[in-house]
From TrEMBL:
Gene3D superfamilies: 3.30.420.270
Descriptive protein name: Biopolymer transport protein ExbD/TolR
Lineage: unclassified sequences, metagenomes, ecological metagenomes
UniProt cross-references to PANTHER family, sorted A to Z: BIOPOLYMER TRANSPORT PROTEIN EXBD2 (PTHR30558:SF13), EXBD MEMBRANE COMPONENT OF PMF-DRIVEN MACROMOLECULE IMPORT SYSTEM (PTHR30558)
One CC-aspect GO term: plasma membrane
Organism encoding this protein: hydrothermal vent metagenome
Length: 138
């Protein structure tokens, strides 16, 4: 005797509700227990948009331009290694005690090199160190 195939074959359904519950509980657990770290950075103050005063004479400035290759151009004349910035700044401060140092970074230069140059300038005794970005050439 043959058995008759059942006409109403039931499909097996998988209930995923408990799986979703577990996933959401794990998500909440990881969000609550996550450690939120504060990123360290440099405090950069941008200048206000005020028109320049023609009567004010700017102080003498030393321009340190960080190039894409990692070297530093001093006053657009000579090229030095970033580690050699401190003696150059010390010489400038000895000549111009009220002078300021302007660090100009190329768009494709590494930011770490610009930060090292700024640190070297401060260690060299610069009264004020400013950071500027060069515009990309088209």
């Amino acid at each position: 005797m043959r058995k008759k195939p059942s006409h109403a074959a039931e499909e097996a359904d998988v209930d995923i509700t408990p799986l979703l519950d577990i996933v959401f509980i794990l998500l909440i657990f990881f969000i609550v227990t996550a450690t939120f770290l504060r990123e360290k950075g440099i405090d950069v103050r941008t200048p206000e948009d005020t028109p320049p005063d023609d009567a004010v004479v700017p102080p003498p400035a030393l321009l340190l331009a960080v190039q894409e290759d990692g070297f530093v151009r001093v006053n657009n004349v000579r090229v030095i290694d970033p580690a050699s910035v401190k003696p150059v700044v010390q010489e400038f401060v000895a000549r111009e005690p009220q002078g300021v140092v302007l660090v100009s970074a190329a768009p494709d230069s590494e930011s770490g090199v610009a930060v090292r140059v700024m640190d070297q300038a401060q260690d060299g005794g610069a009264r004020a160190v400013s950071l500027a970005l060069q515009k990309e050439q088209q």
